[in-house]
Amino acid sequence: MTPRPLAIINSLFVGLVALLLASSPAVAQEFRATVSGTIRDASGSPIPGATVTVIETRTGTKSDTVSDATGQFVVPFLAPGDYEIHAVLQGFKEYSRKGIHLASGDHLVIDCCRGYTTGVASCSGSSRSNA
Fold this sequence. Notes:
mainly beta, Immunoglobulin-like, five-stranded mixed β-sheet, four-stranded mixed β-sheet, 1 helix, 15% helix
């Protein structure tokens, strides 16, 4: 019994599609943004245990994390929008930054210094990448 031409064409088509899908890398674009950075005291030493809160100003949605032993923090999976960031730890100045706009795929890096007194501290530098 000889195979029918339509069956051969269907088999070839399915095989070709499977080959193309298997050989092409799965590409996914991350639409959310990330904020990360390091919290340091006035002398430049890292501050572990600081609570970092990122607030989406339109909805009031809050995302919290705590700085690790090296003072670093990461807040991933933020929807594009306008944000403010606060970092607090008893005995240190509160860090506050408003008017931050995050676009799709942004990764904002914030390094901030905080003194040992009350008040609000400022950012020593920041950069933005769109990875």
